[in-house]
Amino acid sequence: MPPTIPSYPDLKAFVFDFDGTIAGLNIDFPAMRKAVLAQLTSFDISCDELRDLYVLEMISAGKQLIANRFPGRENTYYQQAVALVKDIEINAARRGSLLEGTREMFIHLRAQSLKTGIVTRNCRDAVNIVFPDILSFVDIVLTRDETLLVKPDPDHLIKVLEAFSLPAAKVAMVGDHEMDMQLAKDVGAYAIGVLTGHAGSAELSGAGADMIVNKASDIFTFFPKGYL
Fold first, then answer.
1. Is the pTM here over 0.85, yes or no?
2. Is residue 190 a contact partner of residue 179, using CB atoms and an 8 Å limit?
């Protein structure tokens, strides 16, 4: 029997998460969650049903609870909560940096005529602090400031696919979180997990990763020579 030849997807674009994927993960998410929950408590809102939500979803759900109980106060709460989260993100960004090899990776991808994008739940200001020349290296950047629906909602990634005029099967989603792998699976993209942030190999595999590499720039070592 002849040896099995590995099958590689015909990729035309790579879309990356930001924190933990191409930039160091130094946002204190436990502190962020604690601060948002404390703010909700100050509005006399029970947080029990919100504790398992992601922070942004927690804020949105809290806004609705306040609107139901204290009509007219929900916008004040929402603005304060978003400002609190952004302050934590900005402070983390000022201490942050890109992971080694990130710019070189984007240069190589562009040289191969491959499109690149970023989808992140972080704010634009924080991204620009860490990667001020990002648009010189990446074709499209969609932070939470540029979309109404953020990942894990598929629309966040679908907007990039539409901008590229590419089907999902031609695109790889690269990220450090189970959320990124599930996002790829939800839209039909190729899922590449990296071990520089939130999750380990078991978690990424369990979430549907098609490939796992130590860091984003290692994608070149996985695919055969000349593929990328």
1. yes
2. no
For residue range 39-83, list pLDDT tens digits in order.
888 888 888 888 889 999 999 999 999 999 999 999 999 999 999
- Tokens 């491959």, residue? 114
Edge-first strand order for the sheet with 211-213 is: 140-142, 115-119, 13-16, 171-175, 190-194, 211-213
> 28 Cβ partners below 8 Å, 6+ apart?
88, 92
Spell out the residues 6+ positions from residue 1 whose beta carbon is closer than 8 angstroms to its own.
none
HSE (CB half, 13 Å, CA atoms) of 124? Answer: 8
Tokens of 129: 């602090």
Q: How many helices (H) and strands (E) does the chain have?
A: 9, 6
**Backbone phi, psi, residue 140, to 5°:** -145, 140
CB atoms within 10 A of CB 128: 15
User: What is the H or E stretch that residue 89 is in?
Assistant: helix 74-94
144 near 123, Cβ under 8 Å? yes
| pLDDT of amino acid 3 | 34
Q: Is the dihedral of CA 182, 183, 189, 193 positive or negative?
A: negative
What angle, 0 to 180 degrees and rounded to 10, lies between the N-to-C axes of helices 74-94 and 29-42? 160
State the Rg of the chain over Cα. 19
Neighbours of 192 (CB within 10 A): 27
Q: Which residues of the chain have pLDDT under 70?
A: 1-8, 223-228
